[in-house]
Every structure is written in C-alpha cells, then in structure tokens.
Fold this sequence. Notes:
Elements: H1 3-6, E1 13-15, E2 34-38, H2 42-53, E3 57-60, H3 67-79, E4 83-86, H4 101-109, E5 113-120, E6 123-125, E7 133-135, E8 141-145, H5 157-178
Parallel strand pairs: 1-4, 1-5, 2-3, 2-4
Antiparallel strand pairs: 5-8, 6-7
Helix pairs in contact: 4-5
Amino acid sequence: xAKPYINGxxxxxxxFWHGRMILHPFKKPPGRIMRVLISRHRDGEIITSVLKWxxxxxxxxxxxxxGDIALRELLQVVAxxxxxxxxxxxxxxxxxxAQHGAAYVAQKTxxxxxxxxFGASRAKEFAxxxxxxxxxxxxxxxxxxxxxxxVGEKDVIETIxxxxxxxxxxxxxxxxxxxxR
Length: 181
C-alpha cells in the first residue's frame, strides 16, 4: 500500500526516528521534492547543509520553537506537491516515542504518514538520547517501509501518535532482524 508513495506517485509525510535519520537521503522518492522538518537549533544548520547537498529542502521549526511558522510553511510545501519528512521523536525525545507533531501535520494536510526505518548489520550505536545508529563502511543495510497511516479530521492526535510509535518500532525491529542485528 506504500508503493505509490515510495515511487513518488503520491504525496506523503515520511517518518524516520531521529536516531535512524542518517540514511534518509537514500530513501527519497523520485520525482518529488522532499522537505524535512528540522529544528531551529544550531545542529539543525549542519543537517540543513548536508540535506541541501543531497537535493533535499528543509522547513525550520519544531514544537518548541517556530512551530506555527513551520506549519504554515509545511502547508505551502504540500500545496506545491512536495513530500514532507519528519522525525516524530525529535528534536529531543524521548527516543522511539512519536510526539504529536507528525500526527497533527498529517491531520492538517490530509497526507498519510509513512513509517520508514533502516537496519545495518554492522553499526555503531551512540550513547545519545536518540541511540543514533551509524552504519559502518561496507555493511549490509536494509530499509523497511510500513503501511500508510491515514489521519482523519476527527481522529484523536494522541491515539494516532501512539499508533505511529507502534508501527515505527515494529518496522525498526523488522529492519534490524533482516540484517541480523
């Protein structure tokens, strides 16, 4: 069911865990511009520069800083036919628990949430809040894409966020299992 979104035929909101975002540029659907929601924190400047190199745009803001401005910009992104990407547990966690922002944006845009995660057979997991996973050179990597999560205008944001967390954690375990991690 996620195939038309992964192939770039339809718009969506792609969701990656914060600690599993490093390979994000390699799973960009063809034919559509991807715009990633990035915090206004200093680290966001570095990430913005790297994503730009890969041809991925950004929208700056988060629930803590610039959320209203970011939402307006995300609505413009959708109107232009672009995709959105969000790390639902960012910018500061807790890890692997979706905050309400992704579900809220999905509700406002009527775009489905598409959970995506990679697993790497050999990787360094950092002792950071997000358990950042850095694949080692020449490791085997796999991506797992979950089923689209559609959000209706009357759906409860807290319930959608919990469902998103469950689906993302499920595909993360599946990606790790597929590479023997």
